[in-house]
Amino acid sequence: MALWNRVTSASSRVLSLSVGCVGYAGRQCYSLVSSVPSFLPQRTTLIAREYRAPPPPLPEPKYLEIKGCCKLEYVEIRPYAAKIATVILVHGAPGSYRDFRYLIPLLAEHPGLRIIGINLPGCGDSVVEKARYIETVDALRTSEVVLDGVRQLCGTKEDHDDVFLVGHSFGAHAVLNMAALNAAETQSVAIRGMALLAPAGCVPHKSLKLGATALMVKMFKSENSWAVSAATYITKFVYTKLLRFPSNSPSELFVSAVIRTGTTDFDLIRDQAKLLGSFRTPTLIAWAKNDEHIQPEIPQELATLCPDGPHLEFSGGGHNLQKTRADEISKAIIKWVNEVVAKDKLDEELVSTAASPRVVHEPQSPPPPLPDPKYLQIDNICKIEYVDVEPQQSVSATVVCVHGAPGSFRDYRYLIPMLAEQQRGIRLIGVNLPGYMGSEVEKAHYLKTVSALRAAEVVLQAIRQLCGTIEMDGGDIFLVGHSFGAHTVINMAAMNETLRVAGDDVNTIRLRGIAVLAPAGCVPQRMVKEIPIKMLVTLLRSRSTVVVRLATRFVKYLYTELLGFPRRTPATSCVSAVIRAGTTKFPLIRTQVNFLKEMKMPVFVAWALDDVLVEPEIPEELGKLSHPGPRLEFAGGGHNIQKTRVEQVTAAMSSWIQSILSECNSLETGMTQHLP
């Protein structure tokens, strides 16, 4: 009897909770559904539109299976002449490709355009597996699924199919998501531009009620079948009875719209718009002043973030511009597509007739293997990975090699063995900076530890432990930095000399000179100018795991696909590189270089005229600002002269080290040697 009482009591509580949820949902439903733009134009209170003749019928739909989670329904009109591009049309929430039924025939009049209208997961006959329904109709996941569909339909960049994405209302969010996700993919689609029509933007628009939307999403995600059924019933009732949508429309159409809007991350949308805008992604944006759902300030902000493209503001036309202003919109899109494609072809011709930015160097025979790495714990915040090549005779000095961003001690795999052979009394240490390869950083300290100045502090601390300080009677030390490693070496040298001047022998190493190869200098090099590093650092510091994940993928894409770093480069190394570059203070580098000159710190500088990442003026200036020492200018060799010109570099460096150790000043001329 006691058990029966507990069961009935529990059942009463569940029933009471469900009724309460349903009741509250009922009170909020009209507010919720009226927030979804695509449906509202059918309400009688909306602005009357001029009569339009019915458009010609759309072709029969086709279907595409996506990773076993859903089936995408789409319509396709193929060009009747040589194809110049494919236009992908993405509807709002809720909606279907029929929202573009006036625009599609007009776009298809262009003989070279392939037109594809897609029904998003959960809309029309784009059926989703029941077990994966909630996760698949989520805002970001929907974009991933549709991007996968576009990849299957249009191929990747290697297939040379230029693609333009067109999104209406909440479809603009899907388009922004797809473009940002695509930019981070190795096998990416050739997306050439975006068109955003009456777009949802970076903040909730006036007819979107976030509280009601969140409640409905919570009910749909509930494990309580009563709550899910009630929410589904009420949602369809409001759409079909109050807003007069066809009663035969499936419930999933309305449910997917609610979940899609309720899982939208507006901060992520802003970050993606900034990212795509910084890469000058061609973006057509059109809106109407009398849009009853989206205030003009929202598309205007998007136009500011994505400035490269035509921006069209209509005095009338309401929310469904793709219908009410179909003639003007179609002409604008066709003109814009033609201009972008023509510009891309011109750019390709210019690149093909110019010298290749990727310098091809003569093959190098494989160097002898480096020793197995060792590890050093620093302050319980990170583990430093390094290689240590002991000398063949008594130690005369230690050379510490510091890599660039990204990079590793393997960047010196040619130089270390050769220098060890030429200077048999030299101990050689190659260090992986925090965040690179096996130099792992505690997650809680990651962003701070991989920043430019803090990374230099950590490595200097490691050198103290490995080589000893003045008070410990530590030996002579030389620092070698390649590319951004030059900054780290300059940072460490300036920190150390400051301690030495202050008389802090406990923490001062016996530093005798620094060598910088293909160095970053006192002003940003072209690589830093061409990449939106500051913005990427902001994204990587985001509290949103989605933003961080996308930014990480994008960063690796930049380094491996655009800058030519090896594709095997770990994403963590690329992220550390961006943060290191983004936290570099170039005025501080100049100040430290001047300080080291006052301290008469010997500096060896070498560079190549054909370096594609660092223009020659930067190391030339660095050489002039620094204390006299060898200056080597190579006609060729590119950015990695520690590999391509290893014989000349090691020979000159060996002589320089020997002259300093022997207290000979014959190499302190500062004259530049011009080498092939």
Automatic annotation (TrEMBL):
Keyword Electron transport: no
AB hydrolase-1 domain span: 87-330
Keyword annotations from UniProtKB, A to Z: Hydrolase
Leader peptide range in chain numbering: none
Tagged with keyword Hydrolase: yes
InterPro entries named in the record: AB_hydrolase_1, AB_hydrolase_fold, DUF1057, Epox_hydrolase-like
Pfam families from the UniProt entry: Abhydrolase_6, DUF1057
A GO MF label: hydrolase activity
PANTHER family: AB HYDROLASE-1 DOMAIN-CONTAINING PROTEIN, PROTEIN CBG21859
UniProt name for this protein: Alpha/beta hydrolase
Organism: Phytophthora infestans (Potato late blight agent)
